[in-house]
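User: Hello! I'm new to structural biology and keep hearing that structure can be predicted from sequence alone. Could you demonstrate with Acyl-CoA dehydrogenase? Please show me the input and the output so I can see what each looks like.

Assistant: Of course. The first part below is the input, the amino acid sequence of Acyl-CoA dehydrogenase. The second part is the output, the predicted structure written as tokens.
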Amino acid sequence: MSQHTTETYKQTGYSGREYFQQQSPLLGNQFLEDTQLLRGLKRVLPTQVLSDIQSDLTQFGERVITDILELGRASENNPPKLIQYDAWGKRIDKIIVDESWNKLKDIGCSEGLVSIGYERKFREYSRIYQYIKIYLFACSSAVFDCPMSMTDGAARLIELHGDKQMKEVDYKHFISRDPKQFWTSGQWMTEKPGGSDVSNSETIAIDSGNGKTFNLSGYKYFTSATTSEASMVLARDVEDATTMKGAISGSRGLSVYFIKLRKPNGELDRIKVHKLKNKFGTKAVPTAELELMGTPGIRVGPKGRGVPVISSILNITRIHNVIHSVATMRRCVAIVRDFAHRRSVFGKLLKDNLLYLSTLAEMELEYRAGLHLLLDVSLLLGKSECGVVSKGEDQKQVDLLLRIVTPLSKLYTAKQSISVSSEAIEALGGTGYMEDSDIPRLFRDTQVTSIWEGTTNVLSMDVWRTLKQPLTIKYYFQSIENRLLQASGVQNNDTFRKVISIIRESMKLIQSVIDKVMSGDMEYAESNARRFAYLMSQTYMASLLLEHAVWSKDELDAQVAERWCFVKLENGKTNKNSAISFTDVDEKWRETDIKLALDLNELTGEPRGTYDVNPITGILRSRY
């Protein structure tokens, strides 16, 4: 094939007549063709770190559109099955997964999708390296990034709160690069009385008599990655199961326990699997309703501190939500962008249709903002874990900023990805609506990101909880203001001045809402929590887009920051601070649409992320 797509595609029917045959979208190396990722990494990573990891990311970017993608599809097409009884009537509760699922586990292990974050070869930048590999992996792996996220969280939990035995034995299984030694972990919190509200949890833990091992009994309603080797479990400490002596009601009576699911012979250890969940998406991920029937567990962290202790997992898994959401947006943009060069409608290719390009530009705008937020929260996590601060920061500032940016990034990027993936289905027309196009899977799988680890409403209220610490909003504003000051130092840039003005107005609005709530109007806080969280997210993302534009010195990046402010912070209405308006779209706006939609090379004007052959590697791009 030539580099350019010029061939005519025909299908010969049984009559011998030739009919039109639409070519499918193609995907190239998902690292090398991700222009914004390449530039974002260049901005946030030291030159030597980027140089050291680039070859690994390049080879992995090719794998995720070849063998990993095929394994993911095999897992999706052969979902888990529950066999409750053997031929002789014995209860065995065996969950059967396709061999492709096990191979994805081995690949994730050997590629270091958990271990990189704990080897910490690159200190605070190790998390970015780890999470960008998972970002490349997510949409090709039938959501195997889900068990990886919980394993990541379990490793961190043990690192912070585990006893000597856990750290010397179990922890090493979670961070191993040897598939024969590697374990994955579940995270079992949800019960029938509540998901995010764990205060009514019914699972109990009773001391077995030695003061170290406890017997856990209870019904867990959602247990993802049920084929894992271990799990972290929330349970209520009691002295007697019948009288519930010693039980403390509410979340203060809960502790975290570490359990191993199976006996040495492979059988489940006092666990009954009642059913596998029939889910809307993430169909390859084994998710079950099960009952613990005296399952042995070891307490992790102090008694009665289960919610604060397990929050160390939630910080990790919520950032993994961000990874999957942003990865979904990127994959959708890549597919739609390539398709624009292969589909003709009303006599011209979609790449020449201004309305189509406007839609694709909007998808790209969402993706860019989400990507820079992902890079930011990943670096904050790395700095928090390694105790590293930048000039003018202290550790408390990093930790509190991470505490608020985590729920903001999780809740907002989830909503972005659902919208963008829906647009991707529409952009491919009727075929995009067909299951075998593999586009609906992206939509179904990303829908869970707005639910898992806290719905949008739950996280919006969590944002208010973070603001109970007065320094949190101070550091949030300070982080944004530092970026604005950096931009204000750029001479003769009207676009930057407009963006700075809009962001500052938004900051004033955020402060006015906080003042109203702190005066005691809690009904106002609750009823507007979601809108307020969106505003905080959009304002923070605007500052990140501005920061990137200052660094890149690229006029298009400046226009992206301005457009984000116009669309998100000014609601797309004509404003004295903005030179652009949907009701008065000018040639500059249309030119920006084309550049965003087609990812045009600044020097040659040629589009990136299309053609039949990757111009960088010379390798044929893969049929999606």
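User: So the tokens describe the shape?

Assistant: Right, they're a compact way of writing down the 3D structure. Reading them back into a model, for example: The chain has a mean pLDDT of 94.
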